[in-house]
Amino acid sequence: MEKPLYRQVISDLEKRINHLKPNDRLPSERQLLIQYNVSRNTIRLALQDLEERGLIYRLHGKGTFVSSRYLDQPNIGEMYSFSEEVRRSGQKPTTLNQSLKLVEPNQKIAEQLNLQNAEKAYELVRLRLANDQPYIYSKTYLPEKLFPSLTLDELQGVPLYDVLKDKYKQLGVMAFEDVQAVNLDKQESEYLQEEVGSASLKIYRKTINEKNVPIEFTISVARGDKFIYRSKQYNHLL
Amino acid sequence: MEKPLYRQVISDLEKRINHLKPNDRLPSERQLLIQYNVSRNTIRLALQDLEERGLIYRLHGKGTFVSSRYLDQPNIGEMYSFSEEVRRSGQKPTTLNQSLKLVEPNQKIAEQLNLQNAEKAYELVRLRLANDQPYIYSKTYLPEKLFPSLTLDELQGVPLYDVLKDKYKQLGVMAFEDVQAVNLDKQESEYLQEEVGSASLKIYRKTINEKNVPIEFTISVARGDKFIYRSKQYNHLL
DNA sequence: GAGTGGTCTAGACCACGGT
DNA sequence: CCGTGGTCTAGACCACTCC
Question: Which residue of A90, A159, B75, B149 is surrounded by the most CB atoms within 10 Å?
């Protein structure tokens, strides 16, 4: 059970790219298919992956080039880790796990997690602070099927993703996020210690594993005056 | 000069998806290649695009399915392709180019565009609408150095990025975006025909070319009740 | 076993950029 | 003109899911 060919090509090209400088040219697709002894389709699968992830860019009629990445903020475009971000900015992150309950998901959540009939989900409520000031209030839903007998205890002091990965062998490989501006309602304003009506960010995130199965769905509310959502977009349509 | 086959398949499949419900199953790839009379490769190119954009998901051995949406409202996303996104959701996009002026940039903008001393920048003010309703009010700054003698005329009816690319040979390969929630001030509320104080999204975008030179900086304000910012995050730790 | 998506081959022609 | 990436074909076998 070998790794797919195009995955091997990706790994090798990544190494080669690390030894190159931004805007250096890579060998042409026809040269690469000889070097790796694979078909052009396989080369293009690999290059497409590298392009999507922003390591290279291609110019029709000219060639394939190394992107100038890592030049600005290093963490954007990657999966978001609140604690790491806060620490990076020199502040102290705190996570208050407020409750963990097994619940009957409403229709919207069941849809997001692809739950059938009466399948249940854990609801984890958290409040996240930086330097003891509230930043984000969030509710995370986890399919019971994938995480049987989850307890609040095992989540204390450990990043959620680590528990999902190490204990339950569920690794998130991609996340879709929708960001919306909303005015805070009464309950949210109490948690975030901010006035009712203040602008804040509502973030919906669905994380999937390598088999495209949803492993987590989170709805967060973040203080608008303190929180900035950053992302990176690549060529494709530009 | 036809649209590529797989693009036509994408357009058609998007229409079909709009008439389906989340988690509905699409025909198999082998059924689709008969329906469209193309090769499997072409079908897979189309499906891959739809999957990347989060419209569908595929499960090995099971099939291809319609993704669930986070929110009920028709979602418009992706700053950099407003017109396409709007068209995609079956609405009519309009762009009102309100003014184009050569200005002395303030410090923040000069910083973002790497402008020296007295170098100037064009300020392009635009209002973007879907079905004649205002969605986004934006100010775009373009270095005069890169786009000498830009005129409002040449921007009419053409996507901005096309003009930058075709006439000035400036191709954006990457964009950094910061998204923040703000309460609308008086002027913004007039443009967007929304109440003062309503939550809205403020989006700062810097686009760079293949040489890592900033070619554009845009500050946008988008109606919070209509606009959703969508992005995808990867786990780079694999 | 039948049907699905995932990987892979060996060709072909087109569109674009530069000489 | 040649070399580049972009599109496309018609096959093949593998890995997974469900019955």
Answer: B75
Question: Crossing angle for the helix pair B29-36 and B5-18, nearest 10 degrees?
Answer: 110
Is the CB of B61 less than 7 A from some atom of nucleic acid strand C? yes
Q: What is the CATH number of domain B82-223?
A: 3.40.1410.10
Report the residue of chain A nearest B63, measured CA to CA.
Answer: A212
Which residue from B54, B173, B212 is facing A176, i.e. has the nearest CB?
A: B54
Question: pLDDT grade, residue A77 (50/70/90)?
Answer: very low
SS3 content of chain B, % helix, strand, coil (to 5): 30, 35, 35
- For residue A232, what pLDDT is reported? 81
Domains in chain A: boundaries: 5-66, 82-223
For residue range B53-62, what is the model confidence (pLDDT) as tens digits?
889 999 999 9
Query: How close is the nearest chain A Cα to the Cα of B51, in Å?
Result: 10
From chain A, the residues in CB contact with B219 under 8 A are none
* Residue A238 confidence class, pLDDT cut points 50, 70, 90: very low
User: What's the mean pLDDT when you consider all of chain B?
Assistant: 90
- Judge if the beta carbon of A209 is closer than 7 A to nucleic acid strand C: no
Instruction: Give the pLDDT of residue B166.
Output: 83
Q: pLDDT confidence of A37, banded at 50, 70, 90?
A: very high
- Cβ–Cβ under 8 Å, residues A202 and A219: yes
What is the CATH code of the structural domain delimited by A5-66? 1.10.10.10
Taking the C-alpha atoms of residue B34 and residue A16, their distance in angstroms, rounded to an integer, is 41
Q: What is the mean pLDDT of residues B174-180?
A: 89
- Nucleotide of closest approach to A60 (CA, C1'): D5
Q: Residue A134: name the closest of A184, A75, A207, A179 by CA.
A: A184
Distance (Å) from CA A208 to C1' C5?
A: 17
How far is the alpha carbon of A96 from chain B, nearest alpha carbon, in Å? 24
Rounded, the Å distance between the CA of A7 and C1' of D4 is: 24
Q: What is the pLDDT of residue A73?
A: 40
How distant is C1' of D2 from CA of A40, in Å?
A: 19
Q: Give the tens place of pLDDT for each residue, A47-74.
A: 999 998 889 999 999 999 998 764 444 3
Contacts (Cβ under 8 Å, ≥6 apart) of A149: none
B197 to A197: CB separation less than 8 angstroms, yes or no: yes
> Is A206 exposed, middle or buried, given 0-12, 13-18 or 19+ CB atoms closer than 10 A?
buried
The answer to whether the C-beta of B40 is closer than 7 A to strand C is yes
pLDDT digits (tens, 9 = 90+) for B72-128: 665 665 556 788 778 877 788 899 988 999 999 999 999 999 998 889 999 999 999
Contact A78 B236 (CB under 8 A): yes
